[in-house]
């Protein structure tokens, strides 16, 4: 999916080059103001980095000593797609440095798969949530070359879950328990992008990665949280910012 977005960006660049004028276009005047605002659409791909306990392979027994699962052979997390919509606010610090606030509403599912010595016990636990991302970034810009300007970004963000689609398993069977994560956590993020100037607006294709701080696993005494020491979230986001 990311490859499709990269191809789309390439086509935008090529078409803009063919239509470029000898005099750089205004870009809606965004760079001439100390403050400007916009909106964005993003494709999100994320997965969990899993730190297993030393004894993670062992069978799980509940508090009464009943065996719930057999030995594990693997615990994995695959890339899962999602999307985001957001707003953008920028403040010019210097001609080549900006501060940006890019709050976004994230819709993304993540999952963790458990494989056992008895394949009929294999399970994938989905973690479905809607998140509010609150990133604060610094944007370091190159000199403008015609209708283009490259940039680097880096910053911190806080993510807060608005509500899980599945968040209660009080009455669930031991093998139907959920794997849960904490509701709020911080991350760092870095990325690259390009400002493309059109007559009435500025378009900025951008790709960035982020990694959460600390452990996002909500510790519970069940067969799916017990083998894991910690979870951290790795995210790749491709965005189109309109300003």
UniProtKB/TrEMBL annotation:
Q: Where is the signal peptide?
A: 1-20
Highest taxon of the source?
Answer: Bacteria
Q: Has the keyword Signal been applied to this entry? A: yes
The molecule here is called Outer membrane beta-barrel protein
Cite the Outer membrane protein beta-barrel domain residue spans from the record: 76-216
Cross-referenced InterPro entries, in alphabetical order?
Beta-barrel_OMP_2
Q: Keywords in UniProt for this one? A: Signal
């Amino acid at each position: 999916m990311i490859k499709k977005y990269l191809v789309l960006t390439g086509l935008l660049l090529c078409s803009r080059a063919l239509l470029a004028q000898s005099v750089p276009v205004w870009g809606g005047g965004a760079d001439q103001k100390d403050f400007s605002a916009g909106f964005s659409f993003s494709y999100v791909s994320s997965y969990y980095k899993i730190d297993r306990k030393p004894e993670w392979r062992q069978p799980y027994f509940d508090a009464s000593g009943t065996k719930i699962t057999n030995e594990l052979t693997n615990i994995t997390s695959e890339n899962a797609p999602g999307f985001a919509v957001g707003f953008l606010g920028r403040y010019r610090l210097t001609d080549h440095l900006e501060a940006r606030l890019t709050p976004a509403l994230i819709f993304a599912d993540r999952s963790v798969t458990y494989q056992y010595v008895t394949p009929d016990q294999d399970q994938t636990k989905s973690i479905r949530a809607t998140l509010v991302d609150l990133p604060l970034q610094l944007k370091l810009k190159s000199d403008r070359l015609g209708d283009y300007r490259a940039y680097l970004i880096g910053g911190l963000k806080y993510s807060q879950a608005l509500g899980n689609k599945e968040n209660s398993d009080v009455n669930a069977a031991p093998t139907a328990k959920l794997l849960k994560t904490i509701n709020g956590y911080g991350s760092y993020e870095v990325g690259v992008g390009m400002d493309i100037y059109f007559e009435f607006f500025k378009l900025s294709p951008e790709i960035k990665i982020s990694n959460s701080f600390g452990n996002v696993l909500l510790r519970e005494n069940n067969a799916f949280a017990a083998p894991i020491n910690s979870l951290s979230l790795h995210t790749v986001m491709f965005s189109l910012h309109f300003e």
